[in-house]
Amino acid sequence: MPRIAGVNIPENKRIEISLTYIYGIGRSLSRKILDELKIDINKKASALNPKEVNDLKEFIEKKYKIEGDLRRQIMVNIKRLKDIGTWRGYRHIKGLPVRGQRTKTNNRTVRGNVRKTMGSGRKPPAAPT
Q: Terminus of the chain with fewer CB atoms < 10 Å: N or C?
């Protein structure tokens, strides 16, 4: 199993898909990386030779922010929004949708699946004893 950026990427999948297991790399970035390194996108990850794996490792670590660094940067950005008291920071603090979604309906998962209407999630009446 090739290990790139601290992540074991699956051997039995195409390298284009395998690279997406790394946090911060999606399909389009994966294609772009493989094009720049001139590696076939249909090649299986197990078919990569050690030189290609090393080239991938070095290229990704030098050029892109991934995994722990990216997660840390996102956390710092959210903390900054909270500290300066922006609307988005306030929404993060309260655990509500941040990007303008409606909250009257369709955000049960964000609110912890709270059911406030009469019919939904109502328990059946207890049977008489």
A: C
From residue 33, how far is each of 26, 53, 63 by CA, in Å?
11, 12, 10
Q: Pick the closest to residue 88 from 73, 77, 99 (CA basis).
A: 99
Angle among Cα 110, 111, 112 to the nearest 5 degrees reads 95
Structure confidence by residue, pLDDT tens digits, 94-116: 888 899 888 887 777 777 776 66
Count of alpha carbons within 13 angstroms of residue 24, beta-carbon side:
19
The residues that bridge with 88 in the sheet, in sequence order, are none
- Long-range interactions of 30-36: CB distance < 8 A, separation 24+: 33/59, 33/60
Q: Which amino acid is at 127?
A: A
What one-letter code names the amino acid at 5?
A
